[in-house]
Specification:
Two copies of one chain form a homodimer. By secondary structure, chain A is an alpha/beta fold. Chain A is built from nine helices and 18 strands. In chain A, α1 links the parallel β3 and β4. In chain A, α8 runs parallel beside α9.
Chain lengths: 302, 302
């Protein structure tokens, strides 16, 4: 299960009720933050999330609408008395920028801050624990940019409650079965795992792709994901602007979703020039049916 | 006339409806910004000010709640197509911090950005035009900090409408009178300026003092100002915290106001620990009567 909360999904300049990019991902006991536009800490408070639980922050690129709220959040963690380590993943330069501002404020964090600077143009695994992996999705933008792919691990086989009926199983038998082992009953009888369990749920996958020009290279990396957030800064009527600024249109996002055979597509990173967002759905749904609009503080479950 | 708009008056961490330090000053045709906490650009939009008119920004110190919104505002000016020069006044290091972030975003401004880095511990004149001067008020805080004193110039004498009755005055005569010159009528008659005019309005003064410990050294610099904004992060019940963090209590702010014989005192920069602000007025008004509370988006006229 992956729970996604959109904290902000608008591009360029933050306005009242139009917050710039940031997302919260609750998965396998982690609370991850992706991107951190100015004002993200206020959105975190509004979302009612226990944001002190965030231990890993993934920054796609160093444009202000994805990054200028990070120093404030780091500073607020300090003021709230945080002692837990914080890991920041982002383009080379992110460490220098944050540490310079902490130095000028003479306000070093009283918790440890670890920077994981990214520079590869190939997808790489950047985080892994027992329940989830996070890898990069290299994107095509005006500056070095990565999307992020979250993949849950499915470790536990599921007990077939009908098949175990009548067997005298101890607690440790259940553990062994979930872990894929065959079991030995107290009378010495051996039973193969497959006879008593079902396969685990398939892994769940969430892909965040913002900001990027239309880029078919990402298709194999996001093949079949359960949910794809793909930027749609523009409509096709402004495809020239999209090309010039290395952003995508709603139609281009849908093309990527279709080619990658993803299950659901969520559009966001809208340009401020559009008041009515219905046209984004109309344009994308011409070629991809399961398309949804991101909204600030909207949640999606996978 | 000086028009002051409080954009944010809370300390430390920005929250919904509790914005960190920033103020707009409309004076002598200028729109000045003092300090720029995270989210200031959203507050500027809410205030309905034509904030593209801001040409000079004064930053007291490089703590986040006074500074972390500046890079976002600079970036927004770029996105809005600004071409007018922008002047930034603040502690040494402000240029490096802002330019590093612009470099990392590969987003240089298409307008000229001038940094005026401050390092003096004596008051200095940092801005002057025909209508106003701005000078620093060195403060006592954990990092190098300046308050700012705005003083209007009173150049124009005021026409005595009763005295000029019956005289045949041309447009240029009015200008001469306002500028303090005596005039010659068309018949050759000379009239002394003082007979037809009153003295100009006295200059108006606004002093911004945040953040600072109780500091009697500022008293001669702010003597008799029309309005003093003095930080009151704490109440006397937390005077130990005030001393430790180099902030002031409401009572200390009032003592400064009293000693400097200012006309009005406005308190702000409240710690988030206080929900009810009435106690700030109660405490300060024990020794200084004309005391007011800053509130986000409240305005004061001088």
């Amino acid at each position: 299960m992956i729970e996604l909360t959109i904290l902000g999904c608008h591009s360029a300049t933050p306005r009242e009720n139009k917050h710039t990019s940031s997302q919260l991902i609750e998965v396998a006991g982690n609370l991850f933050l992706i991107d951190c536009g100015e004002g993200t800490q206020m959105q975190l408070r509004k979302s009612k999330a226990k944001f002190s639980r965030i231990k890993h922050i993934f920054i796609s690129h160093l444009h202000g609408d994805h990054f200028y709220g990070l120093i404030g959040l780091i500073s607020t963690f300090r003021l709230l008395g945080r002692t837990t380590d914080l890991h920041i993943y982002g383009p080379v330069g992110i460490k220098e920028s944050i540490t310079l501002q902490l130095k000028l404020a003479n306000s070093w964090t009283n918790y440890s801050l670890y920077f994981h600077e990214l520079s590869s143009t190939e997808s790489e695994l950047i985080y892994e624990d027992e329940g989830v992996t996070v890898s990069t999705i290299p994107l095509d933008h005006r500056v070095y940019t990565n999307g992020f792919l979250f993949t849950t691990k499915s470790k536990m086989r599921k007990i077939n409650t009908q098949a175990i009926e009548g067997l005298e199983l101890e607690h440790f038998h259940f553990k062994q079965l979930q872990q894929g082992q065959s079991i030995e009953l107290s009378k010495g009888e051996l039973i193969e795992n497959e006879k008593l369990t079902f396969s685990p749920d398939p892994p769940k996958q969430y892909a965040y792709c913002s900001d990027t020009a239309y880029n078919e290279k990402i298709i194999p990396l996001i093949k079949g994901v359960d949910l794809l957030y793909h930027e749609a800064t523009f409509l096709e009527s402004h495809s020239d602007l999209a090309a010039k600024t290395k952003h995508s249109t709603a139609l281009q996002a849908a093309k990527i979703a279709q080619a990658a055979q993803v299950k659901k597509l969520v559009l966001g990173h809208y340009s401020n020039r559009y008041d009515d967002k219905a046209a984004f759905i109309d344009e994308a749904s011409r070629i991809f049916e399961m398309v949804f609009l991101a909204e600030d503080l909207k949640t999606f479950s996978i």
